[in-house]
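user: can you give me the structure for this one chain? tokens are fine.
assistant: on it. calling the predictor now.
[tool input]
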Amino acid sequence: MENYPVNLSLKPDVKAFFDADTNTFSYVVSDPATRACAVIDSVLNLDYAAGRITHEGADAIIADIRARGLTLEWIIETHVHADHLSAAPYTQQHLGGLVGIGDRIRDVQQTFGEFFHEGADFLRDGSQFDRLFHDGDTYMIGDMQAFAIHTPGHTPACMVHVIGDAAFVGDTLFMPDGGSARADFPGGDAGTLYDSIQKLLSLPDAMRLFMCHDYGPGGREIAHETTVGAEKRDNIHVGGGKTREEFVAFRSARDPQLGMPRLIIPSLQVNMRAGEIPTDAAGNQVLHVPLNGL
């Protein structure tokens, strides 16, 4: 394992919030001593057919933070999500906090800035975010030290955030019976994803892992928490000593069979802007749908 500042004796409180429409988990992670907290992977509700945005998910998180007397210090994005819109600006407006993402967001902005034909007013330097994390960067949530691990492969900017004995894995890994995320988005790579997963699985076996998504394979109940040890032993795509070559062969065959996420077009436009919705010249919120590009 690389020299990351792992501290299993530090045990943050973790509360999960599930958005059934996008099968996404958001988390409030808090320091029991100081009552400081972070929100990880917030969700903005979108009725795509009606072109209507609402805030039920974010409001539930905001209400929980207020009810428990917590202070929001960070709003963390594990990556630029392709399946839901971030509620980071809305949450920040109500509770404050800094919005952070991996520094390779610049690569994502460059790629999709071109795809969506964004003009020069769309900055591709990550400046929409308050903090850009590099591999191994640390930050504080109250008295708890957190750190970021760069885990590219699903996207170039993916990061796992580790807070004490809890790691928030984004789309780097799913529950053991869910396997792993696709690696065929622009900037993705199956071999790189395997290497990133191995980096994650080099953490101690007792490390708690919190998923960003779960789809209840085989009809089981939705779940969001497992451990490094369980993933190493049982993950259907990488567990039990599966090799890099086996993983690349599987993903290379499987990914072309997968349809695009239902909300990928709006999600990318919004999330590469740190959750801000683009506007037209008149200031109206708008989303564009480039044709035949994905």
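assistant: here you go. Residues 13-271 form a domain with the Metallo-beta-lactamase; Chain A fold (CATH 3.60.15.10). The chain has one domain: 13-271.
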